[in-house]
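Catalogue entry: protein
Contents: sequence, fold tokens
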Amino acid sequence: MSMKARSKITLWTASFTLTVAICFSSLVFYELVEQPFRVIDDELQDIAEVAAQAVNSDTPQGKQDNTLSRYPYDKYWIKVVSDQGITLLASPMTRYVDIPAHSDKKFSFVRKNLPLEKLWLAPEDHSERKNIPASPVVFRVLTDRKVINGKVFELQVANPIPFLVHELSELVYYILAGLVLITIIAIAVSYYLAGKILQPLASINNLIKNISDNSLDQRIPLGKNKDELYILTRSLNSMFDRLQFSFNRQKEFIGNASHELKSPLTILMLGHEEMLAGELPQTVRTGLEKHLTTLRRLSKLVRNLLEISRLEQQETLRHETIHLHELIDHVLDEFKDLLQSRNIVLEKDLSPVTFVGDAEKILQMVINLVDNAIKYNAPENGQIWIATQKTRECIRLTIANTGPIIPEQDLPKVFEQFFRVERSRSANFGGSGLGLTIVQQIVELHQGTISVTSSAEGITRFTVDFPLPISSS
């Protein structure tokens, strides 16, 4: 599934913003964490030195008492063991929890279950104790071996840090919440900015959609700033100039060629008709009749090409009152004999509808649609349905007929010039593939729309809508 450019820009911008925010937050978090642990580790090493001196028998008693009084003795977990395994010093906290020694690490973390009531707390920390969750207490542990005056001591000093861990947990929560908020803001801002950036492209795209082969004289307005969009717009307008020139030359060529062919074809048909009026051998007559049929088909093609040329040049429409239901009745009366010869059942539901338009072109439109419904009807038990109605939005003409199913992929092509679903069948009936093209041109000149559907039951339906408001009744 392809992603729209706006979504891509939003995703890229938001991802970049989130990546920068994560990197910055990680740096800040590292700095905030490293500093207190550096202080704690220095403190533990200092206490280890004090404890080693305190148990050294060579240290004067007064100096031992002085070193131990420098730190709150109950705050730390302290244990000093001689090289014979004799415990020389143990703080009161060692009675409540045992911390194993880590011979491979000097500094480590240990989690132990210890009631907060057993911890030494500074006066300012008593009010914060209720905010600490009841979970194992984290200790920062120093394990070291010291040699003083030739004596070896194994030292373990641990500092419980529940308040620091709680603060760091809150910091992580706030950072994550901030990242989520930054992501949401980045997505919203990126989506808005992407829309602002792509808005000129969307406007250009909408203008291009409105430019068709009948409105190639329209151009995209150039912006004030000569940026990339200005260059793109100028290139598109230049392309439309070339397309308009090519289309106009093509239309002129088709119109001129059709006009030049019309007179010679008429002379040829008259000559064949005059020869057929006389006495001729049967073989010669048969050949002339075939030639005349081909000439008439070619003459019809030329007339259709001339009509399309005139319609494409958007000649001025005549504005006259059209009684659509009466016009359809007149056309059906002209086709009555053909309908009877083909055994086609006609059903009509013609509501009285009157509007202003070009009666000659509307007549041709109806003739082409009825002629198409007869030509491509079912060979047996054929039916045609014709209905007119006026809705709140439009005046609608519907013509449906039984017959072969039009493949779904061919439905959008039926109005293209020279397109025929069944070429052999079209040739048998003299079809040129231009009748529906003329119908579409006439409908569009009247600001209307035409659509076609083909059901699995073999019913093809053409629907013509002329929009309101229009002078109609």
About this structure: The longest strand covers residues 137-148.
